[in-house]
Task: inverse folding
């Protein structure tokens, strides 16, 4: 496993979409490569932000204002 291979697979690795052998190779590479570890950390943080953003519910007040505005337009 070299940096190019690791970087190409890091997204799938984070999504647990790689087989066990490839996951082990990526894990070992990340443990020994500061550059790829930084990339992994960045991708992992981005995934967390995306997940949290998708879980956020729109407040009812905002929904009501949008509905009111739509009703006024139509």
Result:
């Amino acid at each position: 496993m070299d940096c190019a291979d690791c970087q190409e697979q890091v997204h799938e690795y984070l999504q647990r979409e790689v087989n066990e052998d490839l996951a082990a190779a990526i894990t070992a590479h990340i443990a020994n490569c500061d550059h790829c570890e930084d990339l992994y950390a960045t991708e992992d943080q981005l995934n967390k932000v995306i997940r949290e953003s998708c879980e956020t519910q729109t407040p009812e007040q905002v929904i009501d204002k949008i509905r009111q505005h739509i009703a006024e337009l139509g």
